[in-house]
Amino acid sequence: MKKFDLVITKGTIVTASDIFQADLAIQGDKIAAIGPSLAPFGNRLMDAGGKYLFPGGIDVHTHLDMPSGGIVTSDDFYTGTVAAACGGTTTIIDFANQSPGESLEETVDIWHRKAEGKAVIDYSFHITVCDMRDSVFNEIPDMIRRGYPSFKLFTTYDGLRVEDGVLIRALKQTREHGGIVCVHAENHHMIQYLVKELLTEGKTAPQYHALSRPALAEQEAVARVIRLGQLVEAPIYIVHLSSREALGEISRARREGLPVMAETCPQYLLLSDKYYLEPDFQGAKYVMSPPLRPWESQEELWKGIAGGAIQVVATDHCPYNYKGQKDLGREAFNRIPNGSPGIEARMSLIYNYGINEQIIDLCKYVEITATNPAKIFGLYPQKGTLGVGSDADIIIFDPNLEKTISKDLLHERVDYTPYQGMEVKGYPVATIARGELIVEEGRFIGKQGRGNFLRRSHPVVL
Ligand SMILES: [Zn+2]
Description:
The chain has a domain at 56-376: TIM Barrel (Alpha-Beta Barrel), CATH 3.20.20.140. The protein has 13 helices and 19 strands. The protein has helices spanning 77-86, 104-115, 134-137, 140-145, 164-176, 188-200, 207-212, 215-231, 244-255, 266-270, 295-307, 346-356, 362-376; strands at residues 4-14, 19-27, 30-35, 42-47, 52-55, 57-62, 67-68, 71-72, 89-97, 122-128, 150-154, 180-184, 236-238, 260-264, 312-313, 394-404, 423-433, 436-440, 443-444. The strands form three sheets. Strands 1, 2, 3, 4, 5, 16, 17, 18 and 19 form a nine-stranded mixed beta sheet that branches. Helix 8 (215-231) runs parallel beside helix 9. Zinc ion is lined by residues 61, 63, 316, 318. The site of zinc ion has 4 residues, from loops. GO terms for molecular function: dihydropyrimidinase activity; metal ion binding. It comes from Desulforamulus aquiferis.
């Protein structure tokens, strides 16, 4: 009998539906068998020593090598995916951002060139559309067929935002061709009004960023987008949901049976708006949109995850250096580059605060970090689960390993982490991507450029 390339023995296998002790065999880049006593059939053995085997994390919200307002996010597709891999993530979906005048074809070509030869884990692209002229609108069906079934639209930011009319047409067009629209939902005019008021009063410090983008602005836009989707019976995926007010709108829509889904991020679950008060402009590190919220929102978002109203935890990894990039907003909070790093610590942070604090169970943990992202964005069951025939994307996770999150621990190419000093129990000790051991004891040992582009199929509404 032909032997398996690798058998991982004595693991505790966790999927979104099961937890059991078994050996797991890998042949090439796929999981070939799961069962008891597979050790005699392995060419090579790896002893998991009772630790957890989770499906590799899937982070469906990243911004690598992204130009914006004259600067570029500090991680490229090499450094960013190395960091992801070290943290237990084996797949990302990054946002390919259209520039005005570009066709969507040109947009994805640009992003392919950024990722090819660099990414160390598998990747795919959502397409961010800011210029929905007729020719772009007509490209949507073809892009869905070619493996880009998800599009992101903004309701805020000059130069990016689209009007409701455009949203309605885009929602209908994507729905009809089996795609999905993701929305950054905040009310543009409320924010514009508040920014002007605050700056006129001389309120320029980072803390006013949060006041300029209140939960009300998010709630209004989420509610509106949900109703636009209802009009044309289109599914909606709200990115980076941050507030309990907006979550209320999601929950209500789901109770009504509408196909509305939501993602939140570790920063909205773990950090509060108090961080903006850190002295000496340190608050700029947490300037992101939507902003961090008061503690009550964190509590409600966790409940939203546990209860199923929120299906995904992604990172919105959008790293800007404090020195030289965040700095640009010293004169006024609205000039601070928006975004914060987080691609590496997600799997550990959510484990520590979700599992150790007993808010969610292990199956739910796998569901929100891997299985649901794969299902919603057309990668399941190739990705997002541990099953025979699936890609062998596996992390070996030690629930007892204690770490203190710090800039020095992480591999992200950015000069700070918003989670500095947080103590976690539970950390990945090995990352296997398509059958290849690429991270061992926190060290990346894979090859640059080994990541493949993933052509995705139709999204599933959960
Ligand atoms: Zn984002």
